[in-house]
Every structure is written in structure tokens, then in C-alpha cells.
Amino acid sequence: MNFKNIFSFLLLCLSILTLNSCTKEEGPLTDRRPENSIIVTNAAAYRPEPTVLVSKNVIVSPGVTGPIQIVLSLPASSNRQIKSISKVAASTTFTQIQSTGTTGFYNTAAIAGSGKTATFFTTLTEFTTKTGLATPASNTELARRFYFLVILDDDSQIVTEPVRVLVQD
User: Angle at Cα 120 formed by Cα 57 and Cα 68, nearest 5°?
Assistant: First the structure.
């Protein structure tokens, strides 16, 4: 063999060793999915987050309009149960639901789960009162999304993806 062939062979071996030594880095920014994922079973659309519909023309009681219902569920294949929704935030970011404090939440009273399901209920009237925002125009989303901290029966915690609410007539 001549020098050029030996050099090419060594370069090839070095390249193979370098490529084989690479491993995927697991870190805080890795896209790891939870073992038990929460889904919104009454979502009418994904824009890209789950979106539930509310009608501002539906009267819940005198002076209270627009029932908003969000049903959170575990897949049937999950071996866990939903214990409760411990915190609800109406926000534009995940920051509020991830905080450890107890103030500034939309709802701090725990909402009990029932098997693999838990249901959050509020109204447009309550939303405008608690957030200080005006009732939105028809066919627009609420200015804030709902975020939930769900506690499972093994006391593990899951922060759900944000849930949008689309206001219709």
C-alpha cells in the first residue's frame, strides 16, 4: 500500500470511531413525555392546543352567562387515577401554574377527580370577574388560557398543556 491509501484508511477509521462515540444528550430541555398524559376529552378543536367552545348566549342563572366546562382525562390504558385538580391558572404562560405560591390562581380549591376523569367548571361571567378582562367578542378566544395542576392517586403531579376557550354566539 502506498502512503495515500494508508492515510485514507486511517482517516476512515477515525471518522467511524468519532461517529460511533456520539450519544444523545439527556438534559433539562429534552422532550420527555410523561408516563401518564392528560387529555381534554371535550376539546372541539386543536389550535394547536385543545380548545373548548363556550356560548355567551347561554344563561346559567340570572346574570351568569357562558358555561365553560373542561374535562381532563387519563387514557383508558393508564394504570393511574386522577385524585384532584389542585390548582387552576388563567394566564398567558406556564409561569403561574409552575409557581409554588398560593396566590394569583384562578381556582385554589381542589377539584376532586372521579376515576380517570376530573371536570373543571366556570362561566364567562366568573372569568371576567376574576381576571378583570371584558367579555370577548364572538368567535374569538379568551385572552388567557387555562392551565391545570393535576394530582394522580400516587401523588405524582402533571401540569397539563394549556386549554383555549373559544367564545361563540
Answer: 10
Provide the 10 A C-beta neighbour count for residue 39: 13
pLDDT digits (tens, 9 = 90+) for 81-120: 999 999 999 999 888 888 877 778 998 789 999 999 999 9
Q: What is the spatial distance between Cα 59 and Cα 28, in angstroms, rounded to a whole number?
A: 46
- Of 141, 137, 148, the C-alpha closest to 164 is 141
3-state secondary structure of 139: coil
Give the total residue count for the chain. 169
Query: Residue 61 phi/psi, 5° resolution?
Result: -155, 170
Q: Check if the beta carbon of residue 79 is closer than 8 Å to that of residue 116.
A: no
Query: Which pTM was predicted?
Result: 0.78
Question: What are the helix and strand counts (H, E) for the chain?
Answer: 3, 13
